[in-house]
Amino acid sequence: MKIAVAGIGYVGLSMAVLLAQHNEVMAIDILKEKVAMINSKKSPIEDFLITEYLTMMKLKLKATSDRVKAYKGADYVIIAAPTDYDIERECFNTEAIEAIVEDVVEINPQAVMVIKSTVPMGYTKALKEKYNIDNIIFSPEFLREGKALYDNLYPSRIIIGEKSERAEEFAALLKQGAKKSNIQTIYMDSTEAEAVKLYANAYLAMRVAYFNEIDTYAELMGLDTKAIIDGVGLDPRIGSYYNNPSFGYGGYCLPKDTSQLKALYRNIPNNLISAILDSNTTRKRHITRMIMDKSPKVAGIYRLSMKADSDNFRASAIQDIIGGLKDSNIEAVIYEPSLTEDTFAGLRVIKDIDDFKKASDIIVTNRISQEIQDVAHKVYTRDLYNRD
Length: 388
Fold this sequence. Notes:
- This protein has 388 residues and is α/β, with parallel strands linked by helices.
- It has a six-stranded parallel sheet with strand order 3-2-1-4-7-8, with helices on both faces. It has a six-stranded mixed sheet with strand order 13-14-12-11-15-16, sandwiched between helices. A two-stranded antiparallel sheet has the order 5-6.
- It has two domains: 2-188, NAD(P)-binding Rossmann-like Domain (Rossmann fold), CATH 3.40.50; 197-380, NAD(P)-binding Rossmann-like Domain (Rossmann fold).
- It is globular, with a radius of gyration of 22 Å.
- The chain has helices at 10-19, 32-39, 48-56, 67-71, 95-107, 123-131, 148-153, 165-177, 190-221, 225-233, 254-264, 272-292, 317-327, 353-359, and strands at 2-6, 24-28, 61-64, 76-79, 85-86, 91-92, 112-115, 136-138, 158-160, 185-187, 298-302, 331-335, 343-344, 347-349, 362-364, 379-380.
- The mean pLDDT is 95.
- Helix 9 crosses helix 10 (225-233) and helix 9 (190-221) packs parallel to helix 12 (272-292).
């Protein structure tokens, strides 16, 4: 097969690498630096397996910024464009998807387009009607930042938003590149597949919020949070996973997906969906208050990224905490190796870790790192399990 992948983020690049094991894949992105890195067998994102596969495996993968070169002759075009949440419109911004669809219709109208971007419920059907076309399938992804390729090689499930021969063919392509065998595959209506993605992420956000509220109570009441969570998690219906307290959920998916779901429930009776977002806001305010109560002269923010093995800090909870500290006139500095600028959000960025430690009265970090173990007496974190 000849396959084009539009968008070289976590979703697009992991998908391109997966499929390039057995197919000719052309990845396309507007950022020429990303294109150059892939053509030099370097990963523009932090993902150990992607880096390993690019350098060690014989992949049929090339990258370009030329839309004609990418789409012409492609059997499939996988759309992995970002869909940020538009607060004013209370909906995902899907303009990037539509721009790709228009290009494909113009250049290669016979190609089957597969949307991997997260979209509102009913979007795929509406898109078909808008452009009077039928060659679009929605298939959600379920990937973790930093482990995107692993989650494609060993997928929890494959969901295809169509019941057809071409849907089965696309599922076969995913299975062809995977290492896991006997992958459960479900074919359904496109709107139902869009719902699976949003509801799965809403549940994960709810789980984060739930264990964070346990931690808030335990912290304020002087209880051992870990003992409580360990005991709760031993119930097999609950499980001891995805339970590590944090400063709040953030990143590429959970904030925007829960916001989109809340908007879709505007005229639908609900309490729980809205409460997930409210709980996350409350948690960030609590963390800010706990830092302020320690009366630091300088609060050091260790990493803007919220997960281990990730370089993404989009919509990270720590950024709202930084805003709260600034509003309270508490001086703060940032240590974030991925930043090249000298300031971020109006705060000074310290490039040297030793200088950062000396400058900080308290070091605020969502996740513990060996790098700051020598100043553990200064560290404020809610990380109990050193993971997630």
